[in-house]
Design brief:
Layout (H helix, E strand, L loop, with lengths): L13 E2 L7 E2 H17 L7 H8 L9
Amino acid sequence: MKLKNLKDLEEERYYKGSPDTRIYSWRLKQEAIKWVEHLHNRAMDFRGVEDWIINFFNITEEDLK
């Protein structure tokens, strides 16, 4: 399955893994928010990556607060 953004996954769907290692979409979004905050501090090293993560994971300004 090719994903354009996180909305392509259903809310309760998960990526590969056994029942003990499932990764839910909300967990991926939480991790993406951490990366956006990290990359924001290193903007010159990762130009464009921050925007890609924000768009893919549908991260809003409210999420970043």
